[in-house]
Amino acid sequence: MSKPKPVQTIQHKVADYDSVLSGVVELLGMARRASARVVNTLMTATYWEIGRRIVEHEQAGQKRAGYGEEVVIRFSKDLTQRFGRGFGPAQVAAMRQFHLTFPLPDNFQSVIGKSEILQSVIGKSIAGAVERLSPVAHALPLPWTHYVRLLRVRNSHAREFYAREALAGGWSVRQLDRQINSQFYERTALSKNKTAMLLKGEKPITGDTVSADEEIRNPLVLEFLNLKDEYSESDLEEALIRHLENFLLELGNEFAFVGRQKRLRIGHEWFRVDLVFFHRRLRCLLIIDLKIGELVHADIGQMHLYNNFAREHWMQPGENPPVGLILCTGKNDALARYAMEGLGSKMLVREYLTALPKESALAAEVGRTRELLERQAEQRRMARRK
To answer: Are 144 and 40 contacting, i.e. CB atoms less than 8 angstroms apart?
Structure first.
């Protein structure tokens, strides 16, 4: 009869395994982050070069008003036909603005336009492409996601400040966004102890960290590489929006479809409303905002923003105030919430509640649809493994 192994030896092997596993997890995380940085280097340089070529084409082309916008729309259409997502008018306009906002020195020679760059990307290692792109990478060292956020900062001094501090402090895009929203530049400028402010600003807080998985699955990265992530939130959201559009229209002839992903601009920021319907009997707009995840307080505030904008700019004479509907699609909970506070008439609110779909029915439909979409995505993923 064999003797039982000493408990100490078993515990030692478990500790060894845990140590190896921890090292492997750390290695994979580092590799994923490095991959994301390489992709962002190529993406930043490529988008800057696209912007340069658009601007130079405009300068060499017609000088009439509106020609620049016309070129952007045309580029967007042609690039989308060839490469799919990631080249909408707003994205192409951002590339153009990127070149104009972050110009490189006059003696800089574009390297992306040379044929060896394309050959390097296609036929050689990524390292070769990055090496040839190094002049652009050195001049524009932040990831593309950071520059997209910086383009929304109007004050050029503030923009330079945030770019410099983001680079020096290694800020994630979430930390950069938080500092801009909290007016870190203005607070630092007014502070008597600027050094202490800058040191404090370098420290991240909970929620600033972006995981390696999030970096790899960033929609901008996926679009640039022309990859299809079966679990990407943007794809799931798009499918849910299409389904809800059909679902509401099937409820009866009271709903008239107005628009999907309807854009609105407030100040210098652009927003997108997922779905807009008009209810014929209630004579009001129904604004639907879909949230992938749990409902948070900011979602309600944003819906009130949409309602106020719609009341002022979209509402026609003789119509009732618009109604906002927030659909939350968290995996553990599907919640529908009407944002109807402040309509000024309790009777009107009661009529809305009677005529519009019940919250429970909408919540159940959202939950069923999400489960179906995720099952389909899992089936496709398993089929690819076989």
So the answer is: yes
Are the C-beta atoms of 208 and 342 separated by less than 8 Å? no
Give the C-alpha separation, 325 to 346, whole Å: 17
Question: In the chain, what are the domain boundaries?
Answer: 7-224, 233-385
The whole-number average pLDDT for the span 323-333 is 74
Integer-rounded Cα radius of gyration of the chain: 26
CATH architecture, range 233-385: 3-Layer(aba) Sandwich (3.40)
CA distance 229 to 358: 33
* Beta carbons within 10 angstroms of residue 272's beta carbon: 11
184-203 pLDDT, tens digit per residue, is 888 777 776 766 667 766 66
Structure tokens at 58: 């405009």
Q: CA separation (Å) from 151 to 91, 147, 166?
A: 12, 6, 14
pLDDT tens per residue, range 12-51: 566 678 788 888 888 887 887 777 777 888 888 888 888 8
Residue at token pair 């109604």: 323
Q: Among all chains, which residue has been given the structure tokens 């026609």?
A: 316
* Centroid of chain to Cα 64: 34
CA dihedral 86, 90, 92, 97 (to 10 degrees): -140
Give dist(CA 285, CA 334) in Å, integer.
23
Cα→Cα distances 345→321, 328, 341, Å: 10, 26, 9
Q: Which of 90, 99, 25, 118 is closest to 58 using CA atoms?
A: 99
Give the residue from 265, 311, 269 showing the smallest Cα distance to 287: 311
Alpha carbon distance 189, 376 (integer Å): 53
CA dihedral angle for residue 226, residue 209, residue 161, residue 136, rounded to 10 degrees: -30
